[in-house]
TrEMBL record:
Residues 425-434 have a biased composition (Pro residues). Gene3D superfamilies: Aspartate Aminotransferase, domain 1 (3.90.1150.10), Collagenase (Catalytic Domain) (3.40.390.10), Disintegrin domain (4.10.70.10), Type I PLP-dependent aspartate aminotransferase-like (Major domain) (3.40.640.10). Residues 1-15 form the signal peptide. One of its GO terms (biological process) is proteolysis. This is Peptidase M12B domain-containing protein. Zn(2+) binds at H177, H181, H187. PROSITE patterns: ADAM_MEPRO, DISINTEGRIN_2. Pfam families: Beta_elim_lyase (PF01212), Reprolysin (PF01421). Residues 397-412 have a biased composition (Basic and acidic residues). Belongs to the threonine aldolase family.
Amino acid sequence: MRLCLFLLLTTFSKSQKVVHDTVRAPKKNEGYGEVTMGTSLPDWTDARLDGKKRYVETLLVIDPQLHLFYNLNQTLLRKGLDMLMFSVNQFLYQIDVRIIVVDVYTELGRYNMSLEEFSRWREQNVGQITPHDVALLLKLRYEGGIAYVDGICGRNAVGVSGFFPESPFEFASVFVHEFAHLLGLSHDSGGKCECRDWQNCLRIDGFERDCAVQTLVEMLPRHECIQSAPSLLPHTHLPICGNGVVERDEQCDCGPAKQCMNPLCDPSTCLFLVPPQHFFSLLILLSLLLLLLLANRLRLRCGCCSPLPSSMNGSPSLSSPSSKSTSVLPTPSSIKRERHFVFPMIEEAPRILSLEDRVPPPPQIESSEGYVKMYPPLEGTTTPRNTRKGVPPPPPRRVDQSEMKTVERLVREINSLNHSDPRPNKPPPPPPAALKPRAFESPSILSGTLKPSRSAPPPPCKNVRMGKDMYTTSVSNAAAFVDLRSDTVTTPCEEMRRVIKEAEVGDDVYGEDPSVNRLQQKCADLFGKEAALFVTSGTMANLLAVMSHCQRGEEIIVGKDSHIHRWEQGNYAQFAGISANTTSINERGELPLDEIRGNIRVDDCHMPATRLICLENTHNYAGGKPLSVAYLQEVRKIAEEHSLKIHVDGARIMNAAVAQGVSVAELAAPVDSLMMCFSKVNHALSLHSSLGVGAPVGSILVGSKQFIATAYRRRKALGGGWRQAGILAAAAEWGLERAEETTKNDHRRALRLAKGINEIVSENLRSSLRAVDDNITNIVVVHTGGKLNPSKVTSILHSHGVLAMAFDGTRVRMVVNRCVDDEGIEKTIEAFREVVKEI
């Protein structure tokens, strides 16, 4: 959620300056007093403070509409307020201002009070409400705030601020903005300060000048009512963990986590990490342990411990430095201890031998191959020159059989690790011939271009839906069939293939594909919108529009037979968690205006919030009926009344514009976003030729810059980011410049087809077979009944060389495209004569 605060109105009342701020989504970044909403916290540590803390006792008054949103549940309401005030505290704590909520008042009784009305209410009820320094009225989704400048500690210590339950913490900066007004800061307040970051020097969101924070700090000493901490908090207060004041249900409060200096206090819960009743016991135990460690260390240093035995296994020990002694091999359990005293603790070892005694050699064990040193000598150590003579080396200790086996096993393992495998590495077998890569017959890959290969044979014409006769592949159909299944079955002509071959390409994920960028800008200009986004399909474009206009849990209004609702798997529910409120569709392809009004949800916490109206132009299920500009303007009025957005599935918007003699910009003007499918747009090579072609793939989504920026992020999440897409964008751009004439021919031929079908069907048989022939574009819908059903009709047409699509249980759809000429239309009419014979 990104909102901005703009200064709209400044008036004077009661000798106080009133600043009225409104929050709305910014179109440009040049508003006066802009406040960026979000979760980021500004750094005010550069402000010079006087070291004294101020305490602002705040009364939060809840508008009844906000109270109803929480279903009059005080617990839920206080949780939302706790999130808001926790975020507000993160701002004010940095300047030593401690905000204390003394009460949350919910018995207001009046809806939507103005600032003046709220001020009068406070004066009239001052004896009945909790004493406070400032009172703020919170309104449900009120987009802005209003407050008296320097009103704190007086009769005008009131303000109004919006509250959004969906994300209370994101509205904290607006609350702080109004709080700053009450403390004396106005939009033209300025000052001097020193900052590490001069691009954002102690700024407060919505105030145009730098050093606003320092100016606010210098105003704090003059307000008498906030100079001392409250002696006793009322039982109605709202505890704020992190404000530095120990309140109800808190054991400690050391401030926000970054400023907390008490290691025993958890700043996230304001509870002790160790219960107080256990703390002193733990402290005593730690002290005793420390004393024991110190005593043991002193005992080792002063040599007051008993002498270390110099002989093991019953041998006599050394009693004095001058006594003669012999060394005996230590047992394995004592080897580690002796080695420990020789090296790591040589200065502290309580040995009674003199410094002239040499260090005993490491113990040895006997094996079948001689003596093996159990502990090799340390590197860099030498034997002292003045070693004592006459001290024989320790005798070797003979190991038993089990120890010998262990040593031999370890030696074998070490040798196996240190020596490589003597067997030579065999080269891997060559791959089978079927897996070897095939060389291109005519490789021609240049920088920035893509050469299509024509060596692959075309796939056969076959059914791709088992048990259905409505879909077949379209590579070879042009020669054998009149293909009326869709306007997407066309293939690129030679001229378009040349454009694809020579297209400039780059990485579109980095925004570096010149062909994609040029197409997007051209479409934005064509539709009269700020920006555009090239995507893979119309289905993705519609899903991106819904996800960009709505949030999870919200609702769209859409026709029950629209493409978005019926033909796209309900993807808005699968991927975005958005529900649909459906309406009927009249014979003109319109959503009835009264049903749109009736389907808009009231603002209630039990219902999903309505956010978007989805239209279709032309309407596929209504037989390609175009929506008029007048109808779109009526829907726009309804949307503005309820703060809704409008999205148009304009896959065939070019057909709607040509049929009505208007521009696509006129059809796009009343709506917020629009999608057009390039593969459904037929293009002409010249004004005198009906030969044309739709682009291979791709759709365009147009709207405002902010909307397209959101859609761009959603596209990435859906896996729609593509790289060198310029080859596709170039084809779409080439066709976009050559569309109008072919579209007119398609409409003429579609009308001829519809009327020709009706001419061969007598009046008494119209209930079994009837084509819609009024206000159509390039789509012809044939209604069936009686003995005929869509599957039977398409089967008969297929046997006579015509491909059509069974639309549903009662209708057949045919779409005229550039591959169908006048001869193909007449052939289709003749095929319907065979259909009539089956009635």
